[in-house]
Design a protein that fits this description.
- The structure is a single chain.
- Helices cover 36% and strands 27% of the residues.
- By secondary structure, the protein is α+β, with helices and mostly antiparallel strands.
- The chain has a single domain, classed as 2-Layer Sandwich (60s Ribosomal Protein L30, Chain: A), CATH 3.30.1330.40.
- It has a six-stranded mixed sheet with strand order 1-2-3-8-6-7. It has a two-stranded antiparallel ribbon with strand order 4-5.
């Protein structure tokens, strides 16, 4: 009986060491498309660590130009930008687990939600939202997401 207990403890200890060794070999991968890199911004579009992708805040822009029309088209374009980054890196909107939404004006929260929900028809990720006093290019909204990558 003592032998079985000792064997069990040894197996668990070894598997724990192997798991720690595998985790220590992970490296962050910094994602920048060629187009994004040309903008010379002080951050990456996304960072992949293990099987998680962290997408930087996206505004409703195409290149350096904000889409016209206010919060609804900006929200749609920001979500399209996120969707594109995820797809290019082996993930999808279905794999998003957390979003943070920054709004220029909290009174536009219902308009953000009307577009946001179109991208999450089934499972809605965890989310935080808050108002700020200024976003890049005078955007109305900025959205960042965290998703997993299915291997």
């Amino acid at each position: 009986m003592k032998f079985i207990a000792l064997l069990t403890i040894t197996v668990f200890s070894l598997s724990s060491c192997i798991a720690q060794e595998n985790n220590s070999k992970k490296e962050a991968i910094y994602i920048e498309s060629e187009e994004f890199s040309a903008l010379n911004l002080p951050f990456s579009q996304a960072v992949i660590y293990g099987d998680v992708i962290y997408v930087s805040g996206q505004i409703g822009n195409i290149g350096l130009k904000l889409v016209e029309g206010g919060i609804i088209p900006e929200s749609r374009q920001a979500m399209m930008n996120i969707k594109s980054i995820l797809k290019q890196n082996g993930s999808s909107m279905d794999n998003v687990i957390k979003c943070t939404c920054m709004l220029a004006d909290m009174s536009e929260w219902p308009d953000l939600n009307s577009e946001y929900l179109k991208f999450f028809p089934n499972n809605k990720p965890a989310r935080s939202a808050f108002s700020t006093n200024g976003l890049a290019l005078n955007a109305r909204v900025e959205i960042e997401c965290i998703a997993y990558i299915k291997k």
